[in-house]
Design brief:
DNA polymerase, domain 1; single chain; 6 helices; 118 residues; mainly alpha
Length: 118
Amino acid sequence: MLTHHGEPGVIGSRFNEVQHQNMHLFGYGAKSFMLSMIETVIQLTDGAVTGTEIQHILDHGKRLLSFPIELLPDVPEVLIALKRQGYPSCCSPKATCSTRKASWPAPASATYLTTSRL
């Protein structure tokens, strides 16, 4: 998607750096992926990226967000145990809890989904 802005290896490397730098702010997931991709293309083009190209990135990100969340076996139980041990609450890596809570298996959604900062 961004290969016309440079060598794939350089683009990938820069994208990984941007994602790593943004992790503490955006968390992990499709939204942070989109924001980091947009930031990367802005940097790689010295701000010359077009609105159409940014829209293309957003469209791909929206597609990522539309995929169903499928938890691996025992994930809800592990997250509940971690919360009981004092670790921060967690949520879906794809969306805020308020928008995805209903699709999580019970009783996990009511027990460990308390944050929307992702």
